[in-house]
Amino acid sequence: MSKIQIKRVLFITGTRADYGKIKSLMKRMDASPEYEVYVYVSGMHLLAKYGSTYKEVLKDKYQNVHVAFGQQYTQNMSYNMGNVLMSLSAYVEQISPDMILVHGDRIDALAGAVTGALNNILVAHIEGGEISGTIDDSIRHAVSKFAHLHFVCNEEAKNRIIQLGEPQENIYVIGSPDIDVMMGEELPDIEEVKQYYDIEFDKYGIFMYHPVTTEVDELQEHMDEIVAALKASQKKFVVIYPNNDLGTDIILRKIGRELEGEENFRVFPSIRFEYFLTLLKKASVIIGNSSAGIRESGVYGIPAIDIGTRQQGRYSIRKLKNIQHVTENRDEILAAIENVGKYQVQCQSFGKGNSTELFLDVLGKQTIWNSDVQKKFVDL
């Protein structure tokens, strides 16, 4: 009887957001005797001002975790990516994985895809084929061009990957893996979450606003308008820090000066993913430009106010009827906040909660592991 060949896979996580979206896949594979799972932790996870979220990865007790301490992070995204490339290349050479798995559109994912492609290692990209209004678009599509296998959320994303010249037989529609967690039964209850984070609000909204790197010159004005609207609404908000893209310090200064310590606001560098989902499930609204307002909010039927261009093109209001779109204008935002009662609509098009099973079904096929690492462009 032939011995089962164990596949060595490397997951890369650079942010609290991407970890929340892929941890269901990571846990299942780590528990399987068919895989030897390695986890490379870098980027925003390592920054104390964002909550040192690498600790959340360590709490989940994977068999092999490498936290890439010693990297120097700045506001220069290309410099940061260069650091990740050097550190990750050395780690990949050390462990020799059969596959590198990356998620989304962050520089850590791009570094992982480049490292895999240049070392003849299969690269699987989760949640490619989407569009938005930022530099994330270029990063995401670049990752797709370096990747050999594509695990996408829906048919629209699949069609965009095909437009990039990728073969249809290498694209798999599995939905968004974080919806598996959202629809599961292991989330904490709201009282546990409120006690853990010392949140005393009975009714609250969630505010998350990330920098748009190509609009950094307007960011101060945008934040002035948004914060003025939040304060004028006299509603209570749980505020979560942005990602660490160019411009984040402008947002953090505004939050620190005008929201932190105010009685209607509770400010956090980060919130554990499962705890965040419980907060979202019980929120009256999520406001800002986070993808959580586009994806996760609709699963729970929570009204969302999408501000600005960051999620531009990522959704249709005709399909996701829980979303209002506004610009960074005080009066528009205030009007939307007052109008949220009309947008309590459950709707989503990013999966059915079975992404992990679909993902593992694909990786269980030996033909996947025999995929050609030499890519070929497919004309339409």
Overall description:
The structure is a single chain. This protein is an alpha/beta fold and 380 residues long. The protein has two domains: 189 residues, Glycogen Phosphorylase B (Rossmann fold, 3-Layer(aba) Sandwich), CATH 3.40.50; 154 residues, 3-Layer(aba) Sandwich (Rossmann fold). Helix content is 39%, strand content 16%. It has a seven-stranded parallel β-sheet, sandwiched between helices. Helix 1 crosses helix 14, helix 4 runs parallel beside helix 5 and helix 9 runs parallel beside helix 10.
Q: What does the overall shape look like?
A: globular
Indicate the percent of residues in helices. Answer: 25-40%
What would you call the structural class?
A: alpha/beta
Under the CATH scheme, the architecture of the largest domain is 3-Layer(aba) Sandwich
Task: Please give the domain count.
Answer: 2
Written as H for each helix and E for each strand, in order along the chain, the element string is EHEHEHEHEHEHEHHEHEHEHEHEEHHH
Which sequence of strands runs across the widest sheet?
3-2-1-4-5-6-7
Number of helices: 15
Rg result: 20 Å
At the fourth level of CATH, the homologous superfamily of the largest domain is Glycogen Phosphorylase B
Largest sheet: 7 strands, parallel
Cα(first) to Cα(last) distance is 45 Å
CATH topology of the largest domain: Rossmann fold
Mean pLDDT across residues: 94
% residues in beta strands: 15-25%
**What is the class of the largest domain in the CATH system?**
Alpha Beta
Task: Report the strand count.
Answer: 13
